[in-house]
Amino acid sequence: MRQAAETSKFKADHLDPDAPLPRFTALERVTNVAVVPMKVSPDQPHPATPPAIADHELLRCVGLGAYGEVWLARSVMGVPRAIKIVWRSHFDHARTYEREFAGLKKFEPLSRRHPGFVDILHVGRNDEVGYFYYVMELADAAPGAANYQPLTLAEFLRQRGRLPVAECARHGAALAEALGFLHGEGLAHRDIKPSNIIFVDGHPKLADIGLVAGFGDARSFVGTDGYIPPEGPGSARADLFSLGRVLYELATGKSRHEFPDLPADLRDAPDLESFAELNEIILRACAPDPQERHATATELRGELLLVDAGRSVRKLRQNERRAVTWRRFGLAALALSVIGGAVLVAERGRSLQARQRAEGEATQRRLVEDQELTARENLYAADMNLAQQAMDVGNYGRAEELLASYRPRAGQRDLRGFEWFHFIDRVRGDSLGVLRDHTEVVSSLCLTRDGQRLFSASFDSTVREWSVADLKPLRKWELPGVMFATCALSPDEQTLAFEGGNRTVTAALDLARGHWITNRLSWSSAISFAPDGQLVRGARALIFSTNGVVEFLDRNLQPQVTLEEAGGRLAFSPDGKLLATGSWGTSVRLWAWPGLKPVGTLTNAGTVMALAFSPDSRRLATVSRAGELALWDVAAAQPLARATLHDGATVWCVAFSPDGRRLATGGNDQAVRVCAAETLREERVFRGHRSEVWSVVWTADGERLISAGKDSTIRVWDATASRRLPSLSGVNARPVFSPDERWFAVRQNDDVVRVVEAQTGRERVRLTDVLEVGGFSPNGRSLHLVAVGPVWERRSTEDGSRLEALPLPPVPGTLSKRLLTADGHWYVSGLQSGEVVVQDLWRGGETFSLPGHQEMIVALAVSPTGRYLVTGSIDRSAKLWDLETRRTVHTFSGHRMAVGSVAFSLDEGLIATGGWDDVVRVWDAGTRQCRHTLTGLTEGVQDLAFAPGDRTLAVLSGSSRLTFWSLASGREAGMESLPRGVGGGWLQFSPQGRWLGAVAPGRELRLLRGAGGETEIVR
Amino acid sequence: MADPGNVSTTELRRHRGAVVPSWEATRHSLLTRLKDLGDHQGWQRFSDTYGGVIHGLALKAGCSATEADEVLQETLISVAREMPDFRYDPSRGSFKSWLFCVARRRIADLFRRRARQERNLAGAAPEWEQLPDPASDPLNPVWEDEWRQHELQCALERVKQKVSPGQWQMFDLAVLQDWPTDRICSLLGVNRAQIYMARMRLNRLLKLELGRIIAAETAGPAAR
Question: Please, is A567 exposed, middle or buried when counting C-beta atoms within 10 Å of its C-beta (0-12, 13-18, 19+)?
Fold first, then answer.
């Protein structure tokens, strides 16, 4: 794919002596030739509105070339593609435009015959407007870019820098092989350079074939400066020169203009020896004299394979040179001819052997690579299962770790299917934002009274101040070597006090002046300020004591008063009249303040980890090591309610909401939980922390929660709303998604179809009397459907008005299953008799029937291009039909019970059938062999769907288990449990895999988020 | 042909790895192109070719990096202004001296401005600014040095284009990168004698090219 900066092409035929001298707009040096103008000036406007390309939606321009542009596009089936549009207006002469098209015509049939070329899938031309275009397979995405950018070798080089010799040789050999194939067809590429080489599934491919021409007709001088040999382009050896320069850039990380300089850091390179070998190949390929270069691309490939296999090209050359020398001697000295001949044969044999060995080793290596890939695919499936299980038990940290290892690196094959994107979305949890500035455990949080500023103390020896409104950092203080374990803010908000977790240091920070006061006291677990501003700490007592002590400190942090047997944790009531203390003992004591007279004891509180008074000071909440939350009436010293939260895991913190109606707790189960303060019934669970939650606070408005913990992060949660996606009940059909994935339409009971915004659940329009929904029109503004009548209709998704209608002749027989294709082309009815009736709506409803099944039809699916139909029947078979010839193509048998669900993969290469026998079979549509048999399901297979990209098959079983199967390995790669119920279930992916709509047997539609959910609001 | 003088290894090493813009187009053709003020690419090439020399001069004259950029910019503007009437006539003096005069005036302007800004209007301008003869200008040796470095760079680039890549690598590693001979032998698969020969040949070529460049500089296009 051409990059804007690298697109200069030189067309010598513009130098027609009779033609007026063009104005110079851009210029580059070409050795040995006059400099000629480029046809596009940087300021030339490029069409803001691209032409309409049949069956494709152009999404974004991802590359500008001298003669046109490359667009990221999406086919009607949702498959992402690249489309290059070449404009006639960008050429001065018609013949150059035609030559570009002629190159494409030559290359198009070859493109799919060798894996080293980018596949050209379709070519179109419009002479009225003046352009032609071609649809290509899409290159891998360049990692790190916010939007899709193709991963070209140029981009790869920019990201990776100099490549290891073996990798260099491997890519070089792959490209040389492709060139060899092209040359074998009598064609030359003429523009080999890094930006014209793209990666598809991690393999390099030759792209931008605009300059391909036969060896004979390459009269024009084209190519890119620095890659063109001195004698000019257009021959096989010229292509080898260009490839040599590309290899030079890969091996040295330097620009081709610097050739043949060697990198300065080569001296210390670990692979110097093999580099020497590669260098020799590059020097030969780039020799100024074409006769000194490799004779063919195959020869170059052979040498690169030798290097890749760790063999010496130099030795091979020596052998070859010796053979030549011996041959000369043999001719000169007849007497030695016999010996010479023998040696000649031996030497030739040796070099041949070396080449064969290298070929063999390359085959072996490919075999090993394939095995390695299979192993990785298997591991991927296993890790997805583990990640899902980790999430199910709340261990999000482990799940994230497992998922993160599958983010593809440059040049590596992307193994991720829908399930990965869905799980990473789940791992993200519910947080609104994550602050990652602390590098160690964030142990404690406190807020100012107005709720505007937040302080966080961490084991990383820093204290940070944040603005709560926008989560921006304000100030930072550091006390080197001290790991802050707890913090508290004084009533006048002038002082922050801390306990150091490691060095038994108590510290106070003057916030205005930034001064520290420190003192070494015993180990402590809590710190607070008394209403009069006196500092109070809860400390571990002597070894013989069962409970902790509470110490009151003076301004210099010297202990003044000690309450024995009080407890290590403490809280003052908001009205300033009470102090509650408790810890290792199982009771909580209440003390009147001031005076510290004991006024009550709360018994059976467990080992208290934290205490909190309600805003009205009448109630006290305590949490225990065993996960028990207790609510106490302070005046009566009696428990009001008790509940076990966090699945019995230790709870570290508790906080009342400002209105006193809710309680938030954080615990070892990595969750923040909110419950009603009256009943202690759990209301919300916030997931996302990767480890124990140590501190939680409410914002002053009670709308947000802020928590922090062992994963070194501070997370903000919306306590009022859920990030959970909308769900709908009473659904009785498969949902359909709009091409832009923003809307979906679903039929509910009473023949009502609702068009709903996927993200918010907001209803856009409601359509009545609908029997069957087909799909959205390509622009998303209308919906194909079959309404009561039956009548085919296209209705507006904006106001529900009817745009088109076609009454359909009634189908004779009793209907068992029906299907309207997304493009409104076919309306298929399956009958109880086993007959299938098809109506071609594009031909005014022309009807034909497909007899063949013996019993009732229970499953229907039409292939993405609309050519094939697959049907499933009670007769235990599935049939593949060609809708054009109206004949059976194949009958799939093997299921022991009815085939209740069928699906096509998006590339039509696979067909999946799901049986009532709890087995899913995946068939190769070409060979019709069963490729995978997926078992372990229960209560029948309800529905199947291939995720965009065809890496994942989603299977919904009658037990409401949604299972993801990795198609590369045929293994289960995680699952989701949906609400259980009775009845059918449906699955549908949105065109680009952003959503999966799953209707569980209980008729409830759940949306699962896939790709696109990965972004996280991280500051 | 002018005598290029001796080139030291240290001097050469300063230029290793510098990507020298095209030297294929003659200065004459480049200057002719500049008459078209809209020829951005031509101007870019001019700036690539001589920018370093002008920038270097400005820095050594005592300008800050920002000021040197400004001098370069203004020199280019001055050149552009004079271009419509420009006739390349070597008899009227070398291009080198002409460009020096233009650049020097811009540096003088800058110092004058600087002096004004320092509210020192009465202060004397630097001594060199008042000297009429460029040859006796104290900045002249600086210019000469910058120019020579520039010529050397170009000569190196020309030599690189003329010899085989393998020979260049020998020269590059032995002379410019100062690798031990043994290591070069093992990396490039050559013997000591070959390295020696390459060194000799390239040194000779370098001197030849440098001589040609200098001759072209002083004698004008006819010498080419």
Answer: buried
CB-based contact B172 A29, cutoff 8 Å:
no
Q: What is the pLDDT of residues A397-412, one digit of tens each?
A: 788 888 988 888 777 7
What does the alpha-carbon distance between residue A81 and residue A79 come to, in Å, rounded to a whole number?
A: 6
The CATH number of whichever domain residue A296 belongs to comes to 1.10.510.10
More confident site: A383 or B137: A383
Both A266 and A379 in a single domain? Answer: no
Residue range B23-136, CATH number: 1.10.1740.10
More confident residue, B191 or B98: B191
Strands A736-737 and A727-728: unpaired
Query: Which secondary structure element, helix H or strand E, spans residue A96, and what is its range?
Result: helix A94-111
pLDDT reported for residue A293? 92
What are the residues of chain A with a beta carbon less than 8 Å away from any beta carbon of chain B?
A: 23-29, 31, 35, 255, 257-262, 264, 266-267, 272, 275-276, 279-280, 283, 286-288, 314
Contact (CB, 8 A) for A278 and A247: yes
Q: Which of these three, A279, A294, A310, is where a domain ends?
A: A310
Across the interface, which of B41, B173, B189 has its CB nearest the CB of A280?
B189
Rg (chain A; Cα; Å): 36
Q: What is the CATH number of the domain that holds A667?
A: 2.130.10.10
- Does the pTM surpass 0.80? The reply is no
Helix axes A337-392, A297-308, angle to 10 degrees: 60
Chain A residues near residue B22 by CB distance under 8 angstroms: 29
Question: Do A171 and A280 share a domain, yes or no?
Answer: yes
Domain ranges in chain B are 23-136, 163-224
A795, β-bridge pairs: A783, A802
Question: Is the pLDDT score of A782 beyond 70?
Answer: yes
Over 80: is that where the pLDDT of A222 sits? no
Residue A313: what pLDDT?
77
Is the same domain home to A179 and A98?
Answer: yes
| A777 in any annotated domain | no
Out of B24, B39, B177, the one facing A24 most closely (by C-beta) is B39
Q: Given B24, B41, B188, which is nearest A26 (Cβ)?
A: B41
Strand partners, A674: A664, A684
Please give the residue range of the domain that contains residue A713. 604-721
Does A464 map to a domain? no
For residue A256, the chain B residue with the least C-alpha distance is B19
Closest CA to A224 of A199, A249, A261: A249
The whole-number pLDDT of residue B170 equals: 92
